[in-house]
Amino acid sequence: xxxxxxxxxxxxxxxxxxxxxxxxxxxxxxxxxxxxxxxxxxxxxxxxxxxxxxxxxxxxxxxxxxxxxxxxxxxxxxxxxxxxxxxxxxxxxxxxxxxxxxxxxxxxxxxxxxxxxxxxxxxxxxxxxxxxxxxxxxxxxxxxxxxxxxxxxxxxxxxxxxxxxxxxxxxxxxxxxxxxxxxxxxxxxxxxxxxxxxxxxxxxxxxxxxxxxxxxxxxxxxxxxxxxxxxxxxxxxxxxxxxxxxxxxxxxxxxxxxxxxxxxxxxxxxxxxxxxxxxxxxxxxxxxxxxxxxxxxxxxxxxxxxxxxxxxxxxxxxxxxxxxxxxxxxxxxxxxxxxxxxxxxxxxxxxxxxxxxxxxxxxxxxxxxxxxxxxxxxxxxxxxxxxxxxxxxxxxxxxxxxxxxxxxxxxxxxxxxxxxxxxxxxxxxxxxxxxxxxxxxxxxxxxxxxxxxxxxxxxxxxxxxxxxxxxxxxxxxxxxxxxxxxxxxxxxxxxxxxxxxxxxxxxxxxxxxxxxxxxxxxxxxxxxxxxxxxxxxxxxxxxxxxxxxxxxxxxxxxxxxxxxxxxxxxxxxxxxxxxxxxxxxxxxxxxxxxxxxxxxxxxxxxxxxxxxxxxxxxxxxxxxxxxxxxxxxxxxxxxxxxxxxxxxxxxxxxxxxxxxxxxxxxxxxxxxxxxxxxxxxxxxxxxxxxxxxxxxxxxxxxxxxxxxxxxxxxxxxxxxxxxxxxxxxxxxxxxxxxxxxxxxxxxxxxxxxxxxxxxxxxxxxxxxxxxxxxxxxxxxxxxxxxxxxxx
Length: 791
Fold this sequence. Notes:
The structure is a single chain. This protein is α+β, with helices and mostly antiparallel strands. Among the domains are: 2-22 and 37-196, Penicillin Amidohydrolase, domain 1, CATH 1.10.439.10; 304-378 and 438-469, Penicillin G acylase, beta-roll domain; 565-699, Penicillin amidase (Acylase) alpha subunit, N-terminal domain (Orthogonal Bundle). 30% of the residues lie in helices and 21% in strands. α3 packs across α7. The two termini are 25 Å apart. It comes from Micromonospora avicenniae. This is Acyl-homoserine-lactone acylase.
């Protein structure tokens, strides 16, 4: 009890002051007036937050997010402050927690975030006062709730009474944002940055390994591991009401800090947006206002470039630039790690930086030798524009106004934007932050041995010994070192645009986007089955050939399309596969055993080609695909990219081998089981049936999980998360939305499982933007939060 009182006093002391940011920001007078926000909780716990200014709006957001997800926010603060090992343990000096801690401690020692906050407050050079107020209010709101409840009385067992739960500072919020910005850059190469050491140097045993960096290097493009998305922007020619529509269908983790949180935020006359943001962020990142809606999909563009350094003989920490030696800078940081006896012991690492950025190693490919080292430039490492960019997106009136916002702020760290407006125009843009590797720079500065890597994957290795090979600056770019708007793929259409994590090329097949730098993505290459299905679904709806009434989209038809759960790979090859296994009812699996295929063949023959709860055989087909069985006999045609390839390679022995492997993998799991009986999500002692499935099989409603032998697929890892189908018209927005994993991570919250059960039934919550829509909610509950004068 006394500890809770002491914590309450500490939070009270911190709740209304700026910590670690130096001089008080402009607009600090709002602090003297205190914070006050109205919260209207609608069905499923979704908060509609209204405040007179951005500081109070942030307070409301921080308060409600703490009510629902305090443990997630608190743990993220531990991560970005480099304290995971201290609080969550480590198996040794090479543990992932240790590597994470060293990386983030380095960012703290470099004062990375503090330097990003220093500059002209125009939203490009440094965050505006509005955003600083929003962040300050968020921290204060979180702290207010924590002080009110006390750590020892939190209802979430994940962090109740835990010593690592503490008040937030503004720097915690900014550090969390920075970690998100560098997710596809520095953070993706974290292992390689921590491992980098000059030849002959010693460090923590085994820390020189860099498994995460190697995985990034092996990736075919720049998409961020573990996340993806589908999105449609539908114009007047594709909708029944001739206004714009947007499908948002991000595929994000179902657990951890990358969960979305639904909310509606309003400062009257200045900001009014409904949608979702990541937990811990005080802004809407996917959503809509009265006349514009947008979503994001993960882009294929690369976020960093390599620089090959020619080292000075006898000094592997000096490199040549234009023939002159230049010394690397070093910084030693220390993380506190539990030792064998449980006591904290220091683990230190010395990092090496160049004027390009940190030195990185990927053993076997990018080694640090006596003559060569490699550094990276992560163009998002200084991206302090994101919150301001999303704020201005929420204020845009139509897609052309949105395009002007994108041009000015160039803030999207690793995502495309797909949007539509009430006028009936739709927009696609890979307007993300991309290193300025032009065709000319690539030809002149990528050494010959690395040209094939660039051509195949977009990873650029530049000659770091010449200043002429630096990234340079485009005149229209928001900041130096990134591609300016004129070099980025953008398309505005009256029919539709789409993206499902392939490159920009076929945002609309009628008007391919071509001629852009390779670092953004590939052109004229095969598309994924998910991309092809997404395009096919739109075309069938426009033609009225999808079995649904009429032509063109409404919110209802769009919902039915997304959750139609077609398995496009099965549509293409199932019949040929069944014919093949009927003719050859036995095959040899990869482990050499002979497998009877008759049961599998019968199941696939009866399968409905969907991934619905009642579908029998969907999991069998998915295992067949994951085992490498989806091999095509015909070639991809650039003239018919949506429909090719499409014929099963029935003469390839690997096809039946994959089916045999699938049967073996499903030992103890009925081949003809209902998908909903084997694919579930736990909520307390309940197992909620989950529809959808793997993108590799060609399923649009993506659900990724791990097979547990003899059990099935008992936990979703990532997949469909915040789903929104919004129509825009003269009377404002309407439509459907859902957060598949529910609003709260707290098992004692009433909003822990309700939307998950709704998703299981293909249900929805309605768009609630206008006052009439909000007040019509039968579960509406209103309360006010705040502190300071008048509270």
